[in-house]
Design goal:
By secondary structure, the chain is α/β, with parallel strands linked by helices. Helices cover 42% and strands 19% of the residues. It contains 14 helices and 12 strands. A 6-stranded mixed β-sheet has the order 2-4-1-5-6-7, sandwiched between helices. Strands 3-9-8 form a 3-stranded mixed β-sheet. A 3-stranded antiparallel β-sheet has the order 11-10-12. Strand 8 and strand 9 form a beta hairpin. Helix 1 packs parallel to helix 8.
Length: 365
């Protein structure tokens, strides 16, 4: 089960530098000119979770496999992208394929790094891209509304449901508001997702600051934080320059380097966790002598769906899930001790999996 976060922003705000550090590779060319990135770079990263190492230690697992998240470095958007400016159509198509957006905003002054508008104003930059995404969605909606009329006349109930949603979205977009602000009922949720609107995707604003501002941020990142709060969006402060240095260090050197800068953890770890939270994901674990592994699922999944993250056969033949909470597993000292203490539960098909559950599935072949 893959979850993709697209890294977007204007040219030269630090997207590719951040991506390189995030994936600890140099696969994305980072250079000081617009449209350096044309084809999107894709990289998988481990989701930081100290619980996994603790579980693996208790189970004496030979292999430890963390949960993974995919990040996509999408080329810089510019004003007019919705009309094809700057290869806009291609870039917008790349955004349509991700589950959430990490919007990188320049919050640093540097005369050596060109800004496409020759000024540093992260809030205005954000509005530029938001406007392009809304214009692209509005054009898409208007085309589909017209095409949908014939289906409605033919009595297509699904078309009628889509029409209602599209008309509501159109009103929002014309008011300068993104589709994600639309209150969608559970019965309409699937139809809304099928519209594949760019502005329906959850958004995380990433303030890219200079090295001196990595710990506390600055006035510019403060403006972004206020904007994010007003929108109900997520926000993190990162220095891409520092993260690029951190990515080159060994694990034991990394902690000392961050400590010298007054940072408790890397900005990338915060970014990954924020992306995880943005998509409303949780983690459950499986463990044994062979391996300890973290599995990513959306919050609200029931036990059979969670089993399906391992293999579709597990979901189809689901019988029950032997379940222990992380707290009970670690405090009692493992699976057998939890079972002896009556803390291992047998859960059925209606069980809502909780973050941190340690599970063993029984299924029929």
């Amino acid at each position: 089960m893959g979850f993709k976060v697209g890294i977007v922003g204007l040219p030269n705000v630090g997207k590719s530098t951040l991506f390189n550090a995030l994936t600890r590779t140099a696969s994305a060319q980072a250079a000081n000119f617009p449209f350096c990135t044309i084809e999107p770079n894709v990289g998988e990263v481990s989701v930081p979770d100290d619980r996994l190492a603790t579980i693996a230690g208790i189970a004496q697992s030979k292999q430890v496999i963390p949960a993974r998240m995919t990040f996509v470095d999408i080329a810089g958007l510019v004003k007019g992208a919705s009309k094809g400016e700057g290869l806009g159509n291609q870039f917008l198509a790349n955004i349509r394929e991700v589950d959430a957006i990490a919007h990188v905003l320049r919050c640093f002054e540097d005369d050596d790094v060109t800004h496409v508008a020759n000024r540093v104003d992260p809030v205005d930059d954000a509005q530029t891209i938001d406007t392009e995404l809304m214009l692209a969605d509005l054009e898409s909606i208007e085309k589909r509304l017209t095409a949908n009329v014939k289906r409605i006349r033919a009595g297509d109930k699904e078309a009628a449901q889509q029409q209602k949603l599209m008309e509501a979205v159109k009103a929002l977009l014309e008011d300068g508001r993104p589709a994600r602000e639309l209150a969608v009922d559970d019965e309409d949720a699937k139809a809304f997702r099928m519209l594949q609107l760019l502005t329906s995707k959850p958004i995380l604003y990433v303030s890219n600051v200079g090295e001196d501002d990595a710990a506390q941020g600055n006035a510019l990142s403060g403006q972004v934080a206020a904007m994010a709060a007003a929108q109900g969006a997520a926000h993190v402060v990162i220095s891409a320059a520092i993260e690029a240095e951190v990515a080159q260090l060994e694990d034991d050197e990394r902690a000392a380097f961050l400590d010298d800068l007054g940072l408790q953890e890397s900005g990338l770890d915060r970014l990954i966790r924020s992306g995880y939270g943005l998509l409303h994901l949780i983690t459950y674990f499986t463990c044994g002598p062979k391996e300890a592994r973290a599995w990513t699922i959306p919050a609200g999944y029931r036990a059979p769906q969670a089993a399906g993250a391992i293999h579709t056969d597990f979901e189809k033949g689901f019988i029950r899930a032997e379940t222990t909470s992380y707290e009970d597993y670690t405090s009692l000292g493992g699976e057998q001790a939890a079972k002896d203490a009556g803390k291992m539960r047998l859960e059925g098909k209606e069980y809502l999996v909780k973050d941190g559950d340690i599970m063993h599935f029984r299924f029929a072949n």
